[in-house]
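Batch 3, record 17
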Amino acid sequence: MREKIEVAAARYPDQRSAIMPALLIAQKEHGHLPGPVLEEVADILGVERIWVYELATFYTLFRIEPVGVFHLQLCDNVSCMLRGSEDLLRHLEAVLGIKKDGTTLDGLFTLSTVECLGACEMAPVMQVGDDYHGGLDIARIDALLERLRAMTGQAIGADPATTTPPGE
Amino acid sequence: MTEPVLLRNVDMPDGHLLATYEAGGGYQALAKAVHEHTPDEIIDLVKKSNLRGRGGAGFPTGMKWSFVPKRAGKPKYLCCNADEGEPGTFKDRIIMERDPHQLIEGMAISGYAIGAETAYVYIRGEYALAIRRLEQALAEAHAKGYLGKRILGSDFNFTVHIHCGAGAYICGEETAMLDALEGKRAQPRLKPPFPAVEGLYASPTVINNVETLACVPHIVARGPDWFRGIGPDKSPGPKLYCLSGQVRKPGLYELPMGIPLRELVEDHAGGPLPGRKIKAVIPGGVSAPLIPERGLDVGMDFDSLAAAGSMLGSAGVIVIDDSTCMVKVATRIIEFFHHESCGKCTPCREGLNWVVKVLRRVEAGQGGPGDLEQLEALCKGIFGNTFCALGDGAAMGLRAALTHFEHEFVAHIEERRCPFH
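Prediction for the assembled complex:
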């Protein structure tokens, strides 16, 4: 982590600018950003801890709390809402047996709604890890959950190569 | 305009690779710029083209560049705003995913014009594929000498860095984006000083949108008269329109600036879904006040839409049909603005919280007789009283819904339920 953060920091004349990239690196490594990780980031960059805390608690991509292996982030902004994202949310809550913002007991899935993902041409859209899944309906959601579950049988945390990258 | 300009490469399987870009004449405009033109001449070309910023505000790009002091005694910076967050907008993502060299060439020419040697692309952290493609393209451009030291044998040095955002709509506001780049919470700055004089690290800085920068190589290659020949003279050029919502063919369309909204929605995007009628269209992302169906003949350019009481914004065109409750749409829009308020100023932070409470109650059939007056009073308290345009956008959007669809709000209150459920 230290090495990656130092490479990122070299892009800026001021170390404070490197906090955001450093937090993204730290989150990729740890899954979320608990206090000790924030302190480590501050120490690596040699910046005030409060500067790190205030970013980690302001930007929505930073997670202070842990999430499941797969973080299902369903867009519910206007374009997706107009194409049925509410039905998809109800369906996901029903089949996963959790409410929005909850995590399944086996720790596999966390379900969230997010603001516009910038992929409205394929609405309704859901982001899982780095990948966008568009043109969703209930059948496609079920198939996606099936694929994700199958992946955990193999290698958790590997790049989900079976999914389609956005725009492909 | 029949042939695509900005979307020329996006449908090619390897549109994101340098070889594809070069085969279409890519980086020849950069060569022309650094070998045949002085930086001031480039600024002049862009001024003459009447290019206006594609991020939403429509400020003349050449004029923005000319505000950068010639001798600042400090490094100058170019920042590309790729934090595309306006709901309904996805054009910049597609350029970066499928034709990133077009943006890089535009940035290099723009950097040359303003005298910047360092640039940052502030890109949405969610855009993983765009980030990967842009990283790959930057490496290719460096290896070929289109970036780096002494570009194409000239005295011009230029490096582009990627800075991934972490989720904050407010970063679309250019000074908030600068604070984010400096490692702070993204909150808008007081202006003046304007970024051109005192921006990133208190140095002269130009911030341009992805699509704006992508226009620059074409202006240099084909000349300002060609650019001005497309669309209205005061607001010209090829334009990317993002079509989404309840329309048959959602997608990204490149058409001349100024095309009638009706033609865009009904002819190009195939019109409403089967058996439905269009009720309203949001023309420029949710910050842009909606236009009811009868107003769809308006031209899609900065001035025509402003005259019609809306705005071109980011050209995120969201189509809403007659199956949809406008109170629900308005509620969702204001919930978004409330969520994204940076918290710096009270009218936006507290006002939008209040508006959301009233709208949710009305939508749920629990609204009271004074609620519509309350909403209007809240819009009045927010509009014009906030630090940046986020609050204004929210208030204008709500006012448009209240003005054009008052009967739907009244029906919710009188019938004590949502008539669409």
